[in-house]
Amino acid sequence: MAFESLTDRLSETLKKVRGQDRLTEENMDEMLREIRLALLEADVNFTVVKDFIKNTKEKALGQDVLGSLKPGQVVVKIVHDELVELLGTDVSTVDFSKKPTIVMMVGLQGSGKTTTTGKIAKYIKEKNHKKPLLVAADIYRPAAVEQLKTIGEQVDVPVYSEGVDVSAQQIVKNALAKAEADGNDVILIDTAGRLQIDQKLMEELKELKGIANPDEILLVVDSLAGQEIANVASSFNEQLGITGAVLTKLDGDSRGGGAISIRYLTHVPIKYIGTGEKLDQIELFYPDRMAERILG
Ligand code: GDP
């Protein structure tokens, strides 16, 4: 549990506090300083960290900890509870019960969007017995269309594609009709990504949203993108109203602090995590496990 890693991290400070029968504001500030460092090291966005520490301190003071008998533990508990509350207390999944369920996958180029689209298709085919259709709507990179086709073959899921000469809007319209004709119950639309957020990309995504009327818009975010994650999450959410996020490349060195930034700034749940390049390396998101990883 995150409790333990937090207790470990604060062990020196807790030792000092244990010698006293009352927590002083100074002790508490010292603990909060260490927590602040842990969060920054985990790449949580710095303004998010600032707010988090401020809120936690207010909450601690509000609970009259400066007099409590086990002052260290009380602060640890408050920090832990705040973190889990921020990350979401429950596992949050995509509701695939509607037929068809339409999911738009969005994100910057290189975030792992196309791979994740294939991973979700494989996951729901095997675990939920769904009959998904993948839609290749990233018409700006011929390689992206080919990549989705290859992934479709690997996971044995059909891919709707019209190459790169037809507009993404038209492809999505045609794909919806095709899915209805073929009885696909989940439609996963792989949209274009850019290296940076630009207005043209957003306008096209907004148009696609209007056409597809998706049940979910999942933002795919590279967990290794550091402080940039906050900006990406805020922009996509403001422009499109995302309904969930997927944090990829958690098999790498990232401590996953991006999860906190995403939750704090957009309030949407993280629904999956990517844990490798292989198409079965996708998992549901467990907030308590992530809290522990972030605290290191
Ligand atoms: P897109 O441009 O957003 O569609 O990104 P891609 O799906 O092409 O992925 C970019 C690179 O990241 C590829 O080399 C993927 O194999 C890799 N990738 C995607 N997800 C993960 C993950 O969870 N872990 C690791 N290690 N690599 C990943």
Automatic annotation (TrEMBL):
Limits of the SRP54-type proteins GTP-binding domain: 269-282
GO cellular component: signal recognition particle
UniProt keyword RNA-binding present: yes
Binding site for GTP: 107-114, 190-194, 248-251
Source domain of life: Bacteria
Keywords: Cytoplasm, GTP-binding, Hydrolase, Nucleotide-binding, Ribonucleoprotein, RNA-binding, Signal recognition particle
A GO biological-process term: SRP-dependent cotranslational protein targeting to membrane
Compartments in which it is found: Cytoplasm
E.C. code: 3.6.5.4
Catalytic activity line of the entry: GTP + H2O = GDP + phosphate + H(+)
Enzyme class: hydrolase
Molecular function in Gene Ontology: 7S RNA binding; GTP binding; GTPase activity
Oligomer status and interactors: Part of the signal recognition particle protein translocation system, which is composed of SRP and FtsY.
Domain notes for this protein: Composed of three domains: the N-terminal N domain, which is responsible for interactions with the ribosome, the central G domain, which binds GTP, and the C-terminal M domain, which binds the RNA and the signal sequence of the RNC.
Protein name listed in UniProt: Signal recognition particle protein
Organism: Kandleria vitulina DSM 20405
